[in-house]
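In this section we walk through a basic example: taking a raw amino acid sequence and producing a predicted 3D structure, encoded as discrete structure tokens. The instruction is simple. Fold the sequence below.
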Amino acid sequence: MESKGKVCVTGASGFLASWLIKRLLLAGYHVTGTVRDPGNEEKLEHLKRLEGAKERLVLVRGNLMEEGSFDDAIFGCSGVFHIASPVLGRPTSDPKAEILKPAVEGTLNVLRSCKRNPSLRRVVITSSSSTVRVRHNIDPTVPLDESCWSSLELCELLQTWYAMSKTMAEKAAWEFCKENNIDMVSVLPSFVIGPSLSPELSATASDILGLLKGKTERFELHGRMGYVHIDDVAKCHILVYEREDAQGRFLCSSDVIDNNQLLTILSTRYPSNFPDLPTRFKELGRPNYELNTSKLEEGLGFKFKSIEEMFDDCIASLAAQGHISLN
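The resulting token sequence is shown next.
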């Protein structure tokens, strides 16, 4: 296979980064992946088993909070996919401090290394649809698009630290890249669903597993959510990297549905597998919204997988890993 060049992926062992690396290797890229501990064989085994990994994947150390620690990984790469970002998976005494600083400073540290790399062609930053939808007075008749930004004041008020961290990090990235003449594109996925390559449960898979077992807290926080297949997010990253005409931000989401629509889909497809699945959510009066993904779909010809397909794939993966039974 003819090489498509060398790229770097930060946070390589994570849910999305693993899928992106899989897709990049299949497409013929040489990939340098950054991880916190390259010696952790157990955590990295799933990456080393990927097709093409032996010949074209190198894993090196990179720490978001260490300025310069990405220099070696990024040097000589024509593309950088910055995916590593803190996610709060456990209760903490100061969630705001623990997520905001690493998100913003980590992004800037990666971009400083990009600035020092003369081979760089383009940077793709993984942001989030949460950077557009935490807003006052959403008009449900006008879908949110890439021109929208979440309100930092409202994020603070609601204590939605993840949305706040992604918004601040993406804004800081745009400002840095503009000042330093770096070609950057950002991808804004919604709630990412699908099979996991790693044996570790991703945050979203953990939420789905909880829902199937009757735990509703995580979903009650949102009320309504956009969903996207993990493989679509990986493919979208490569598409916006490769297409010269891809510029700016790209919302990456299939359908937006409310919790009760999701329950209907799951109970219809799995009528007897999950007896603890809730029958109905309380209506919480959350704002109704839609996401306008025409920039990706019509502008670049991208096609998304369905809600049913992404949840089927996620549930099959949870069963294969022994978390649930489909018998």
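Looking at the output, two observations stand out. Residues 3 and 28 are 5 Å apart (CA to CA). The chain has 14 helices and ten strands. In the next section we compare this with other chains.
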